[in-house]
Task: structure prediction
Amino acid sequence: MIELEGVTHRYGEGQPPALDGVSLVIGAGERVALLGPSGAGKSTLLRSIAGLVRPTHGVVRFRGRPVTGASPGELREIRKEIAVIFQEYHLIEPYTALGNVLVGRFGHLPLWRVLLGLFPRADRELARRALAELGLADYAQVPVRRLSGGQRQRVAVARALVQGGAVILGDEPVSNLDPATARMVLELLCERNRREGTTLVLSLHAPELALQFFDRIVVLRAGRVVMDRPAREVTPGDLAAAYGVRTPGAPPGQGGGAGIAGAL
Amino acid sequence: MYGTTPGRRLAVAGVLTAAIAWSVWVTGFAPSQWDLSAVREFVAGMFPPDWTVLPTVIAKMGETIGIAFLGTLIAFLLAFPLSFAAARGLSPDWIGAPVRGVAAFFRAIPEILWALLFLVATDLGNISGILALAAHNVGILTKLMAEVYEAAPAGPQEAVLSTGAAPAAVVWHGILPWSLPHLFSHLFFRFECNIRTATVLGLVGAGGIGHLLMLHRSLLQYDRMLVDTLGILALVLLSDALGALVRRQVT
Result:
């Protein structure tokens, strides 16, 4: 479904690479959690899959077609299939929650409908249902600028859900939610994965959520993949080692990280 | 700013003195030669003001507001499409650069010059005023509006883009909603400026209250000129107040 081949990206000349020769193959229907300290390159990785960042070197492919160097028309077709939940939500402030969720349908509608804001009834229903599933049924008509951080994040998740693509990329999609709501949102995304085979690639800052909800863990550090393993084979010690955290008295990766995984 | 060394201070003082001397020389600015009797005659002629002209003044004030409004509106309607073409990042440079050049040309010519050109061309007072304001302001608004789009946050644009939407949708939903209050703020500020400018344009014959003032001056009716002047003052204060009110609502 998604292939990265030697992907390197630098945001400026002479800057250290945000991604450093990353090669990764993600199959259809996989649930992949991206872990790693801040600045490890998780956001850049997700953005290059979505074609929002053009890698300095290397190639990204989606369903065998290159994303890197695709024509604007091809890129639009690819983007329709890849929904993105942005770390900063990227909502349209003056619009209501419903209006923002309907943005997810833009790629599927003729331009005149998009410009006039005339959405088919089915799309409105879909958007309302997504908001309801995320516990925001009562906020559909509220401008998003009046919503709290957690509510805004859930609007961003709903927007990705209604886009209905083959892939959902999420850049820390539950970072601003309380633990119970975070689990509810991840459960919703996993349900979409189980029901429709949607591929999930989400970056997370909480390893215990990654281990619970995902079947594959990829850890990035300084732009490189330092661990890529099925979730069930990952031990807390592995995570501590991957994060580069040392515990007193135990070398990393040898079982000394149990306490750290709790702390992470 | 102020000379930090004695030499610098001396140089600043020298340049300033030379500038004053030169300006007085070229303009013949010499208070000793002022003929105060003309001033006395003018002031005496103003009182008592001739209030019978008030209804005409009010009607002409309305005309000035109308000139300013239509001039601003036409400028906005033309600038709206042009501003997208002029914005960096929204259109390719081979479109953007010429559009920015034409806009710069239009705003470089002052309204009063445009008014004189249109007066010669059309010989119609009010219409010349409207066209003069439109011509100058289309240049200003194109630039200001393009700058608003350029400053729009990237996030919402990226969000719309990432759904596979068309570029027009990215502009319409990703940029415009954030930009609208700023556009309206610019628009009302230009309207406010245009009310003031429209009174001046009248002096060269382009309609409105300024035109009436010029007429009364040429007939030496200073008592009516005073009423015209009060009318202009009221108009400017009114536009100031209106502008402040609108900006508070919009932003």
